[in-house]
Specification:
six-stranded mixed beta sheet; 15 helices; alpha/beta; single chain
Length: 320
């Protein structure tokens, strides 16, 4: 499948709320999520194609800044786009529905391919509002958005299913997190997730959830006997379940270690991203070796080698 991701420029206006920002991050982290939702949950017939690249989201060609959506996916090669998907996160009814029709029309004019609009609406009333056909005012042009509302988000209570789809599992916690089994499945799944974004999924779910669901998440994570893969400063602060050496240190040292390991985590992900960009298929053992390394100097060496290494083994070879 070729999927082109157009992510919002970080220098642009701040997102209206943490849940909105986090949902956008879920789709920019793994653009195939939008394709899977449309195909698997909403029954949209989409073309099958294979690559992913980042582009700007602004597709306006006139002096105005009002045509800029949350996420844009373009399926197919850059020269001949096969299908485009606009993802809009909407928590209330404030966005003019005609504006959504303009988004689709503007993107169609630019790419000359069919366009689907996927609305993610955590609120049931908001989902119903945006699920109605949108009359644009232009004769013959009526847009039908595809809406993922709370009733469409699966209730994931199987840890294996949660591990296979951690992004959907995080959304399931957001919507159905008062169901204890949903949170337990999500927590159990964190030990099996190998995706490079795995350390962030807990924070994603926590950020999107209500205070009541957050309290349940904290209770379950605190009482669990499992060694959780805690990499983030938030999780380390709340649960203190880092590496074994972190347990033996005091609170102040633990916080300092958390900051250091946070930098190491970012460096490890950078190494993996460079390898992926160069077309390397990183096996699980090497992925684990990189992502669990806490030696910043070593990670910086690997990052430099990742840009030029001809083989994965070349990443680790010592220069004699």
């Amino acid at each position: 499948m070729i999927v082109t991701l157009c992510a919002r420029d970080a220098t642009m206006s701040v997102m209206p709320s943490p849940p909105h920002d986090t949902l956008v991050k879920l789709f920019t982290d793994r653009p195939q999520l939008a394709v899977e939702i449309l195909r698997d949950f909403l029954g949209v017939d989409l073309p099958a194609t294979p690559l992913v690249r980042l582009e700007k989201t602004t597709f306006n060609t006139r002096p105005s800044d009002d045509i800029e959506s949350d996420v844009v996916l373009v399926m197919g090669p850059p020269q001949t786009a096969a299908h485009a998907i606009i993802v809009e996160i909407q928590q209330d009814k404030s966005k003019n529905r005609e504006q959504i029709a303009r988004y689709a029309a503007a993107l169609w004019l630019m790419l000359r391919c069919d366009v689907s609009v996927l609305m993610i609406c955590p609120d049931r009333n908001v989902a119903t509002h945006y699920a109605q056909p949108i009359e644009s005012g232009l004769t013959g042009y009526c847009l039908q958005p595809w809406v993922l509302g709370p009733d469409d988000v699966p209730v994931i209570t199987d840890p294996q299913e949660a591990a296979a789809h951690p992004d959907l599992a995080a959304m399931s916690v957001m919507i159905h997190g008062l169901n204890r089994k949903v949170v337990e499945a999500f927590a159990a799944a964190l030990t099996d997730v190998t995706d490079e974004h795995a350390p962030k999924y807990y924070e994603y779910a926590y950020s999107m959830s209500t205070p009541a669901i957050r309290r349940l998440m904290e209770e379950i994570m605190k009482s669990a006997s499992t060694e959780w893969p805690v990499y983030s400063p938030f999780a380390r602060e709340h649960f203190g379940r880092g590496k074994a050496e972190g347990k033996a240190e005091g609170k102040a040292e633990g916080k300092a270690e958390g900051r250091t390991e946070g930098k190491a985590e970012e460096a490890g992900r950078s190494v993996l991203l460079v390898l992926a960009a160069r077309g390397f298929d990183v096996p699980a053992d090497i992925h684990a070796r990189i992502i669990t390394c806490t030696d910043l100097a070593q990670l910086e060496t690997w990052l430099a080698r990742a840009a030029t290494a001809q083989t994965l083994q070349g990443l680790f070879d010592e220069v004699g």
